[in-house]
């Protein structure tokens, strides 16, 4: 074959190959777009849940950091519209329950659904110094390992000096039901039989942490809350290392 003909053939093959690669690339983008569109709802939910878990973890770290520098855990926020720590002592488990003091801690204070993180702390851990010899961590976290009912995940039926529970709990009300928006607007309960979510929303000693479900027929009803807590041993170890326990 003459050289000019071979040259034209090589150019044709290169152009044809480039066009084929471009076609495959476009087809790949189209297939990916269809896949993303098909999964966008569930993927968005998963991403928001992961982001909220990160925000809760950051809140927990900020609470521990506050204890390391102040010798105690902070009290809840003044209100849903004021993220400063309440200046008033909270002498009961109920009065020590509210919203995380996001301004005081220097965090966002909200989950990825735009709801304020709730925060409950035992009174003995909001004063300086924390009197280890008498301080009692009074928060309990329960789960549902099956249909037989609730079981303790952290703490036990009775919290005492000899049998400590948890000093603080942080929770997100999740996407669907209850909670308070960052604008301070209380969200309605649209769930059916969601007793575990209602317990978390109104409780100040006992909190429920379990698998999410949209089925109102499962034990505890619909549920999408996210719950975390500060283990007492971890708090004591960190504060002791920082010279904040006497």
Question: Could you walk me through the main structural features you see in this protein, from its secondary elements to its overall organization?
Answer:
With 246 residues, the chain is an alpha+beta fold. It has one domain (37-241). The chain has helices at 3-70, 102-105, 195-202, 232-241; strands at residues 77-79, 82-85, 97-99, 118-121, 140-146, 149-154, 168-172, 206-208, 226-230. The protein has a four-stranded antiparallel sheet. A three-stranded mixed sheet has the order 6-5-8. The termini are far apart. The model is unreliable at 4-40 (pLDDT under 50).
How are the secondary structure elements laid out?
Blueprint: H1 3-70, E1 77-79, E2 82-85, E3 97-99, H2 102-105, E4 118-121, E5 140-146, E6 149-154, E7 168-172, H3 195-202, E8 206-208, E9 226-230, H4 232-241
The helix count comes to 4
Q: Please bin the fraction of helical residues.
A: 25-40%
What is the number of independent domains?
Answer: 1
Distance between the termini: 95 Å
What's the β-strand tally?
9
Taken as a percent bin, the fraction of beta residues is 15-25%
SSE pattern, N- to C-terminal:
HEEEHEEEEHEEH
**What's the average pLDDT?**
86
Category from helices, strands and their pairing: alpha+beta
Largest sheet properties: 4 strands, antiparallel
Low-confidence stretches: 4-40
Cα gyration radius (Å): 26 Å
What can be said about this structure in brief?
This protein is α+β, with helices and mostly antiparallel strands and 246 residues long. 37% of the residues lie in helices and 16% in strands.
